[in-house]
## 1
Amino acid sequence: MTSKIDAEKAIAGVNGKMLKERPIAVDWALSKSKWEGVKDQVEAEIDAQDQVEGEGSDSEGRSENEELDDSSDEGLGVHADGDVSMHSGSEEDEEEDKGGDEDDRGSPSKPELPPPEAGTTLFIRNVPWEATEDDLRQLFKAFGSLRYVRIVMDHESGRSKGTAFACYWKKEDADKVAAISQTLSKDVNMDTVARNPFSAPSLLTPDPSSSLARNLVIHGRTLDVVLAVTRETAGKLRDVGVKMREKADKRNLYLMREGVIFPNSPAASTIPPAELEKRMNSFNARRKLIQTNPSLYVSKTRLSIRQLPTFVSERSLKRLARHAIKTFDEETEKGERDGLEEDEMDDEGGKKVVDPLSGGEVALSAKEPKGEEKKKIGRKGKWSSGGVKQAKIVRLSERVDPLTGKGKSKGYGFLETEKHADALKILRWANNNPETGSLFRSWWMDEMKEALSVLEKKTGKKSEEEIARMKRLKEVIATSNEDGVEKAGSKRTLVVEFSIENVVIIKKREGRDKTSTSLRRRRE
């Protein structure tokens, strides 16, 4: 029995009942070590009973005692040395010897089943909803003796999930079933080498009418059978399956959730409720936008940055990107934050490798060069440690900032990096980071001092506009309370997300870039 409670019910319900005019006797079985302890006491009680019956029955009593010595173990249900119980009898005897007192207290005890790595357990997919465990047992018992068959049920609906487990006594029987299923999968060109049960399954199934498939057909459907794995390995396979689907997603929709602060996340407690609602509304609007337009996709190297202080320039934005990459790496080395995953460190270069768990091909690309492997990149012939291609602030053309002479900032901009890994580092460090406000203010002051120094060193007569600008710069620098900086910027944190791009516009932009590049080369 699987527990002591079930055994007690069986004894109460069956013991003493008549079967073909004979009473059934059901009692607790004892381990051999326990039986040896009470054997002398049982024999003494039998001897006393024989003496009461009288001398005339001595010979008969002796014969009964002799017979008891030979068969008492079997009659009381004691497991002999050569017996094999339903769930590994030798192991149960040891458990009863060690935990007998625990059984006496009435605590249920379940037999230990073989672990998945033993290779006797099978994982079954494509199980019809109307199929029962008896149906599966009748099908799989043709390959060997079964320990159990279990259908995976949905706790909420109470219906089958379409999967099941079957456990054999012998590993050879389980391998036989898995080999047949693998042969059937080859016929329909399904991946058969170390298949990942958590990756997207093939829509093709073997023909149920084929001679080989008939052994695995139930209710007109061919079952897909693989060897079961441990819970830890199942988690790894699930992660690999998710990553493979992400690699195959050309629109990179999985990056939509990157950097989003959800209400139940730890970061939600660090921002006001109004700010949290604003971020969630932005996420829902972006998701709806990309779902309704198939031409849109999420860029892997271009970031959208909102809630920028209006005094932030393109130079400061690029400086923030390089600072974020450097600080992210330093915090990772110190163990203060989690680093990037191995697949996140790889850029897209078209290279494909075989995943060791799933057996499928995953597109990877070259990593950042190290040491002597670094090569000159770009027109300037230098390797950029920050990896920033472009920093852009969206400005108003009709309003000019008196300090910089540029258009007034709209409070948002874009950053484009050379590698996806750099974009991830910038996003994960700068998004909702309160340190960015003080960094922007210090960099802004540096730019103001530098602009004033350039105007002062300028030779010749200065225009009225330049004189007014110098006066304004001196006032801002002298008053260090940052009258020219919006105070609200110190309270609001950045919203950093992967930018949504339009493939049609990108192609037009690439065409214009190629044309301008070719014209420039002709002139040179």
Note: The first helix runs from residue 4 to 14.
## 2
Amino acid sequence: MMTFCFTGIRSFPKLWKSNPYLGLGPGHPYLSLFLKDCYGIRNQQKWFSLKTASPQNTKAMNLLIARARSLRKGNEGRNKQVPSESHLFAAGAAKKRSQMNPQSRDHALPAVRNIIQLPTKPLNSEEWETLKEDFKGKANFENWIISQMAQHNSSVDVAKSLLAWVAAKNNGIVGYNLLVKYLYLCVFHKQTSEVFDIYEIMKARYNSLESGANTLLIRGLIHSDRWKEALLLLEDIKKVMTPSKKNYNDCIQGALLHQDVNIAWNLYQELLSHDIMPIMETLKAFFDFGKDIKDDQYSNKLLDILLYLRNNQLYPGESFAHSIKTWFESVPEEQWKGKFTTIQKSGQCSGCGKNMESIHLSPGEYEFLKGKVMRDVIDGGDQYRKTTPQELKRFQNFVENCPPFDIVIDGLNVAKMFPKARESQVLEHVVSQLAEQNLRVLVLGRKHMLMSHARWRKDEMEKVQKQASCFFADNISEDDPFLLYATLHSGNHCKFITKDLMRDHKACLADAKTQRLFFKWQQGHQLVIINKLPGSKLTFQHILSYDTVVQTTGDSWHIPYDEDLVERYSYEVPTKWLCLKRKT
């Protein structure tokens, strides 16, 4: 067992000094620390100990943190707001639907009762023992309490007293889980001098650190005058793996904080070269920093960021949108003026009157998407193992022998719109109203729909077949590949009716460009019935006429953004826009 004696480290917080609440003092010549890496290195036990050279150098606790991982933190519990009437693809619509349909909600686990109150001041050993006795949970008390401390960002001093108590009763042994969360608290509370000392000890103990420890240390160093050492840690990560977007974000933030613009941009370009999508916080930092820079080259790079958002269909958050607005209005002699607004159904900006780009694909885009969907989705293989190649071929022959359709209906999906109504009656009512408009309709269904049943009356299904072309697949088959094939094969004018959001099919497409085109095509072609009662006049939700992406005309920018209090799913688009117009 290796023994380290650190005698020259400056002003390191004395966790283990003789203190009524710490319980250990210089009378303990060796504090052995057992580290077990439960995050990937199995069946390895690592021992090291600290020899206490003098009362002034009793720094054992700060050697505890040997290999750390950053914690995921989220604030997912805050209340969300959604507009009272939402388009199928509007941000917040899915959340609203789930709230209106209790049956579709996930079965949530019962809330865990807060068994004990977290201490707000350091405790001595007896107080920790008492608290443990009061703990009624099934989890390990020490791991539970440190997790709660990390979740609630408790005081570092309180966490120190916990680890001191654990070490005292376990011959100096402290579990890895406790160590990780303790380091997290040190970084969260920006106790920079302590981070320095932990860093020095870790460098002395290990030739290299794993990415979790490097990630925490990078974040702990960037706010200090030793921020460039975070770049060295980033290089260490590169030796074994590609750094994460958070690693790059922290280093870029550090560079901008210390006015080193070139390093910040170089790191940003490096991030993009790895095909890593930057987090919005990184991009926002460039705009915030740009308010104080009067430089055309820097301005052009910020405009490139906006084009990056466009090309990748990314949306800034509300705070980022405010930063963009502030930067534009700060550009000297440009006379930009921004306002937060909405886009009308016609596609016209309510702020400046300009029309947004059309949602419809160009002929070239349509043919490109059609080929990709046919190859990657229709003939994709495993994802449609329930649909036999023979049946798919039978359907393709059926479609090719029919004239192009105007409307393709997911029959089963539409028939089940009203749970209390008879399915065949609902479907027949929808088809008859479309046929009255002289639309060529294709109904896709399952063979069981043709079997006489209380929910599927034979006479009503015969009416459906007289008014529309119909294809009934095997009962185990997937409907969606047939729907996509028929709609795309019929041409760019053809629409389809279903409430299915096609997320799985978008995911089957190989690249971001094709996924983007698919989503754009879907928004322009998917019809959603919004009738409240069966038998009422057929009404569709309006189809967006404009594309929801960042767009510019040179003297204007329109940027869709996410509102802070609206939960937007990946298949939804924002409803709020930042309108920027230059005075001429």
Note: Confidence is low (pLDDT under 50) at residues 1-84, 103-112.
